[in-house]
Write a structure and sequence with these properties.
Four copies of one chain form a homotetramer. With 139 residues, the first copy, chain A, is of the alpha+beta class. Chain A has one domain (2-132): Thiol Ester Dehydrase, Chain A. Helices cover 21% and strands 34% of the residues of chain A. Chains in contact: A-B, A-C, A-D, B-C, B-D, C-D. The interface between A and B is medium-sized, with 24 and 24 residues.
């Protein structure tokens, strides 16, 4: 299991006239959290794209429990539960507001994709090697 | 059952560097489609807000089957399957590209909410009366 | 001189908690207006990109006179005053609200650019030929 | 004179299919930079709004010198040159990429506004007192 935390401050342009983070903008929060997680592993996603693999989202399930508001510093807790052999990876996100309340949950599944061949590919070897140590169970 | 179609052209600022509609921006497409559906009923959502009821999203499930690309005129097919007594409403969206391929599916559940009392409320009577005729089964 | 009108409805996700179209989102309105103008000429910008020329913005000046609000159907009046020999083109935008008030003015200058050579290029011949008739002065 | 620096990482959802930060999204960068500057003064903008003063943008001039790209950590240098008696304030922004190149310049003028009276107001006293020390010239 791999678990990280990212802290993100909500911008004015991301909030709607209810004063809530617009529901479509949570996707930016997941993106920042998973990009930081992948960067922390030692292989930034931006480099992975230069190396020829992109990661389109294929599935997203989200529950909005409480609103996030302008200027709040939210915490995005991100977990990968398992490394799978097939070309998909799922990030589980829990978002907490400054008061510590769980305000949002989402599971986002991405695939690995080669834009030249237009085919799905396995996770790049370089990323797999960096992530594997987190998924080895103690005997 | 109530079913409508909205046609939306993908903007440059909505597409990412893969050349795909950014996954968070599908939320704008659902929003346009359900706002047009509600407007067509005779009671625009903007008026409902002025009358004191807002509609925050509480749940969203989405499947990304194929990418939508810059400048494509997508079709968003939106269905409400049932009018329920509790303060939730679910919109089912299917998105088709210009070639007619089903590229995306999403279910978005919203609640009715009074921002002054900070409580969920039933669907406004005015909207319910406008929508009900679509849900009366023939004998 | 070439002059067109585009009508755009303001989305919920584009408005901030003041209830105003977020100041950064006017860029989307200019984009829609100039893309429709170019498409109307007979050569869509999306096709121009496929043909190898992109158009990055190099300068933008904007005045915000009155707010645009959620659900308003704004009118974006767009004018090109002259076709120049150098690789720049300026679009002049005036935005009107539903009441007919002038609410916004902006001048946006773009350049023509070849992403492969990473150099500025003149306006593509195909676009020039389509636009030229609008700029021939009567004797 | 007051001068601050903010560092912001470009998100995937903010970049267009040229691979450049979308021209409308620079507005988010200015917003983050000026919000941090105001917060650093000791009076967060979010608090100012709760106290009854909002700050709509009235003018924006921008020059795009070089593109900003996905995942770059840009530096936004922000300067206020003078505190004026009238209800306007101008922020001067210079943006640098990771290589240290100046890639963007913008001047953004905002006004102070009371949404209840719908009138422009002077800078709130509390903010003025916090900013004034930066603008006292040595004799």
């Amino acid at each position: 299991m791999l678990k990280t935390e990212a802290f993100i401050r909500i911008r004015y342009g991301e909030v709607d006239q209810m004063g809530f983070l617009y529901y479509g903008n949570y996707a930016l929060m997941y993106e920042v959290a998973r990009a930081e997680m992948i960067r922390d592993s030692g292989y930034a996603y931006s480099q992975m794209e230069k190396d020829g693999t992109v990661m389109p989202v294929v599935k997203m399930n989200a529950k909005f429990l409480k609103p996030a508001r302008y200027d709040e510093l939210i915490k995005v807790e991100t977990t990968i539960l398992e490394l799978l052999a097939h070309p998909f990876i799922t990030f589980h996100h829990k978002i907490f507001n400054e008061a510590g309340d769980l305000i949002h949950k989402a599971d986002v599944t991405l695939t690995f994709y080669n834009p030249l061949t237009e085919k799905r590919v396995p996770m790049p070897e370089r990323l797999r090697k960096l992530l594997e140590p987190y998924f080895i169970d103690a005997p």
